[in-house]
C-alpha cells in the first residue's frame, strides 16, 4: 500500500515553493467563486441559497455556452424566484482557452467543480498551483493515476496549501445521523459486532438511467454513459457510502491506510443500454464518438456502471454494492438500504411499507427493557427533537418529524457551511484529509483489482 515515489517528489517541490503557488485565499477573506466547466447541475446547487461569506459576483469559465447552459438556467431560476431570491451576478467566459483564463487570471479564490470526473483532477491541480481553494462534487478521481496526484496534494505539510474538499452530503441526512448516534452509544447497541459471521455493515443501492424528476423526464448528457469520463460504479456512487462507513464508525479519528483498511474483493459488471433507451434518456438519435468503446456488435451500449466491493475497516467487515438498471419497471424508482449488525441489535435503513426510507431497529434479545433503552438513547439526540418509535412484531421503527428532513439542496448548503468554517481555520482537520485519501484509495484500488462478471454475485 506504499505510495509511488513521484508523489513525494511532487510534495517536496511544493514545500520548496517551486512546484506550486502558495495559497493566499483561505485567510478569512470573503469567498469569490470561480465555476469551471459546470456540466453537472450540482455546481449550481452550491449557489441555491445566499451565504454571507460569499460575494455575489461569480466568474464562470467554460469551453462553450452549451457546457454551462444548465448551470446558467438554474442560477437565473434562483435569482428570479419569488421567495428568498438570490442575487448572483455571473460573468462568463467561453473559449477553448478557458482553463488558462480561469486559473491564470486574478479573479476568484474558491473553485467549484462538478462535471467531467476524469478531468476533475487536472482542474484541481491547476487550482492548487494557482493558490485557489477547491470545493468539488464527488468523485474527485476515478482511477489510480488520479489518486496518486490527489495524494500528493494531501501529503504536503505546508500550512499554506490550498484547501481541497469534496461534497459529502450524506453526513447531513437525518437517518444517517440517527443511525450513527445509536450505533456509537455502546451502552445501548453493544458496539458493532465484528465477529458475527457476516459483513457487519452492508450498503446496497439501485439507480436508473431513465427516470423522471419533478414529473418531467430527466435528460442525461451523453457523457453520463462514458465511464472513462463519468467513472464506473465502483468509483462514483460508492464514495458516499464509504464516507458514511468512516464517519459512522470512526468519526474524527485519522485513518491509517497501512493499518486500518484492507480490500478483500471487488466485482464489476455492465448494464445493457439499447439505442432506443439511449435516445429516450439523452434525446440523441446517434451515439457520439466518445461512446465508441462501449458499443457492441448488436448496436447496444455495455455500460460498466455496476460494482460491488468487500473490505475490512478497523476490523469491521463491510460490503458495498451499486447497481444501475435502465428503467424502474415496477415504478418503485431508485432504492437504497443499509444494514448495521451490532452486538445487541440490528439497525436497518430501508423503505417502509409506503416506500419511505426509514430507520428500523431489531433487538437481538428483548428482556422487556429494550424499548425504554431505545427511547432514552433517542433522547440523547438533542438537536433532533420529536423523535418517536412504534413497534411492530418485534421491530421498532423510528418516527422522524417531517421538519427534521432536509432536502438534497439543503444538504449542499450544510456542506458549504462546513467548508467555510474549515477555510476560516485555514486548514482541513487531519481526519478529514485522511478520510478523503482512504476513500479514493479504496475506490481506485477496487476498480483496478475488480473481477469482471456477467451478473451480480451473491
UniProtKB/TrEMBL annotation:
Pfam families: Oxidoreduct_C (PF16490)
Lineage: superkingdom: Bacteria
Gene3D superfamilies reported in the protein's UniProt record: NAD(P)-binding Rossmann-like Domain
Residues covered by the Putative oxidoreductase C-terminal domain: 198-451
InterPro entries xrefs: NAD(P)-bd_dom_sf, Oxidoreduct_C
Protein name listed in UniProt: Oxidoreductase C-terminal domain-containing protein
Organism of derivation: Sphingobacterium tabacisoli
Amino acid at each position: 500500500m506504499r505510495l509511488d515515489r513521484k508523489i513525494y517528489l511532487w510534495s517536496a517541490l511544493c514545500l520548496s515553493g517551486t512546484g506550486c503557488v502558495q495559497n493566499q485565499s483561505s485567510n478569512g477573506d470573503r469567498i469569490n467563486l470561480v465555476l469551471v466547466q459546470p456540466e453537472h447541475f450540482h455546481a449550481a446547487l452550491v449557489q441555491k441559497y445566499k451565504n454571507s461569506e460569499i460575494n455575489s459576483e461569480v466568474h464562470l469559465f467554460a469551453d462553450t455556452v452549451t457546457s454551462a447552459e444548465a448551470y446558467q438556467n438554474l442560477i437565473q431560476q434562483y435569482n428570479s424566484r419569488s421567495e428568498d431570491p438570490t442575487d448572483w451576478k455571473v460573468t462568463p467566459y467561453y473559449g477553448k482557452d478557458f482553463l488558462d483564463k480561469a486559473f491564470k487570471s486574478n479573479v476568484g479564490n474558491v473553485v467549484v467543480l462538478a462535471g467531467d470526473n476524469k478531468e476533475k483532477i487536472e482542474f484541481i491541480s491547476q487550482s492548487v498551483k494557482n493558490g485557489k481553494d477547491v470545493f468539488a462534487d464527488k468523485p474527485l478521481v476515478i482511477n489510480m493515476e488520479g489518486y496518486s496526484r490527489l495524494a500528493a496534494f494531501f501529503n504536503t505539510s505546508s500550512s499554506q496549501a490550498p484547501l481541497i474538499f469534496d461534497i459529502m452530503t450524506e453526513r447531513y441526512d437525518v437517518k444517517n445521523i440517527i443511525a450513527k448516534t445509536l450505533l456509537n452509544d455502546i451502552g445501548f447497541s453493544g458496539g458493532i459486532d465484528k465477529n458475527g459471521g457476516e459483513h457487519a455493515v452492508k450498503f446496497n443501492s439501485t439507480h436508473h438511467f431513465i427516470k423522471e424528476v419533478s414529473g418531467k423526464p430527466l435528460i442525461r448528457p451523453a457523457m453520463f454513459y462514458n465511464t472513462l469520463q463519468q467513472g464506473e460504479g465502483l468509483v462514483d456512487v460508492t464514495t458516499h457510502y464509504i464516507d458514511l462507513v468512516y464517519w459512522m464508525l470512526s468519526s474524527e479519528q485519522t485513518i491509517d491506510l497501512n493499518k486500518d483498511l484492507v480490500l478483500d474483493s471487488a466485482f464489476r459488471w455492465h448494464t445493457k443500454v439499447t439505442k432506443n433507451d439511449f435516445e429516450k434518456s439523452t434525446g440523441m438519435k446517434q451515439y457520439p464518438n466518445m461512446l465508441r468503446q462501449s458499443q457492441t456488435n448488436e448496436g447496444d451500449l455495455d455500460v460498466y456502471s455496476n460494482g460491488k466491493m468487500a473490505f475490512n475497516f478497523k476490523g469491521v467487515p463491510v460490503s458495498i454494492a451499486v447497481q444501475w438498471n435502465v428503467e424502474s419497471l415496477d415504478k418503485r424508482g431508485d432504492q437504497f438500504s443499509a444494514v448495521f449488525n451490532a452486538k445487541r441489535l440490528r439497525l436497518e435503513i430501508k423503505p417502509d411499507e409506503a416506500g419511505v426510507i426509514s430507520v428500523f431497529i431489531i433487538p437481538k434479545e428483548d428482556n422487556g427493557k429494550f424499548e425504554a433503552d431505545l427511547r432514552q438513547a433517542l433522547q440523547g439526540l438533542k438537536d433532533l427533537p420529536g423523535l418517536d418509535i412504534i413497534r411492530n412484531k418485534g421491530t421498532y421503527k423510528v418516527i422522524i418529524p417531517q421538519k427534521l428532513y432536509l432536502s438534497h439542496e439543503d444538504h449542499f448548503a450544510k456542506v458549504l457551511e462546513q467548508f467555510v468554517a474549515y477555510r476560516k481555520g485555514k486548514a482541513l482537520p487531519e481526519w478529514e484529509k485522511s478520510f478523503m485519501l482512504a476513500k479514493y484509495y479504496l475506490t481506485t484500488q477496487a476498480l483496478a483489482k475488480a473481477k469482471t462478471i456477467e451478473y451480480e454475485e451473491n
